[in-house]
Amino acid sequence: MSGAALSGTALSRSPQIVVIDASMALAWLFERQQPQDIEQANRLLGACGESPWWVPSLWHLEVANALLVAED
């Protein structure tokens, strides 16, 4: 069945998986300048227990690099 053939109801019943990239995780640690960045990060953090989370395979390296750069 193609995505076009699925109704909105069928899609809403699909399990939602949240993908957290390094920039989103770092938004929780570092102060953001843009109000929309702050709002998006806080909304995602607030939904923490509602959906399964997934991070890309290089996530830990990206976060470690950002923390090292921020340390300077």
Please tell me the total number of domains.
1
Distance between the termini: 52 Å
- Cα-atom radius of gyration: 16 Å
Largest sheet: 2 strands, parallel
Global geometry: flat
Strand coverage percent = 5-15%
**Count of helical regions:** 4
The share of residues in helices is: 40-55%
Question: What features would you describe in this structure?
Answer:
This protein is mostly helical. The chain has one domain. Helix content is 50%, strand content 6%. It contains four helices and two strands; from the N terminus they run H-E-H-H-E-H. It has a two-stranded parallel sheet. The longest helix is centred in the C-terminal third of the chain and has 13 residues, at 59-71. The protein is flat and about 45 Å long.
Layout of helices and strands, plus pairs?
Layout: H1 8-12, E1 18-19, H2 22-27, H3 35-46, E2 53-54, H4 59-71
Parallel strand pairs: 1-2
Short description:
The protein is mainly alpha-helical and 72 residues long. The protein has helices spanning 8-12, 22-27, 35-46, 59-71, and strands spanning 18-19, 53-54. The protein contains four helices and two strands, in the order H-E-H-H-E-H.
Keywords:
mainly alpha; 6% strand; disordered N terminus
